[in-house]
Amino acid sequence: MTQNQVENIKSKIERLGNLRGEALQEGVVQVLDQEVNYYNWTGFYFMNDEKQQLEIGPYVGAYTDHTVIPYGRGICGQVAVSGKTFEVPDVHAQDNYLSCSLETKSEIVVPMYAGDKLVGQLDIDSHQLDPFTKEDHDLLDWVVAFVAERLV
Question: Which of 54, 140, 130, 138 is nearest to 94 (CA)?
Fold first, then answer.
């Protein structure tokens, strides 16, 4: 991903800035899916601390059985515990990976904070090995901050 692509995507997402909550999240995953050809499943998960699980939010991509993920299980569940971005260049080399699709080769999960509270995450699966760049990390950090400011 180039810096020009990042700026173009940010501009498209900023145009959604009048939206809030689920409507914004739906728009964001659609933009990311349309603009980045190696983002093959893009979606949000939200924390349910009472039940110690992640619950699926808006997403674009193939149907998933993983609508609820216990904290600690899989890449998303590990991010729910660590609160830190987790990039997996090759999911087949990763322990504790929850397979959503046989086509998935890599994954990145970026935590989303509202202030100091971890409230959710953005999960992206790719059908390519090791596609995520520094620009992806920078963009996705910006995206989760943008969405977190507009949760309600």
Answer: 130
> What are the strands, taking DSSP E only, across 85-151?
86-88, 106-114, 117-126
Question: Are 42 and 59 contacting, i.e. CB atoms less than 8 angstroms apart?
Answer: yes
Phi, psi at residue 127, to the nearest 5°?
-85, 5
- In angstroms, rounded to a whole number, what is the distance separating the alpha carbons of residues 129 and 134? 15
pTM listed for this prediction: 0.95
Q: What pLDDT digit, counting tens, does each position of 27-51 carry?
A: 999 999 999 999 999 999 999 999 9
Q: Please list the ranges in the chain whose pLDDT falls under 50.
A: none
How far is Cα 87 from Cα 54, in angstroms, rounded to an integer?
18
Report how many helices (DSSP H) and strands (DSSP E) the chain contains, helices first. Answer: 4, 6
Domains of the chain: 3-148 (3.30.450.40)
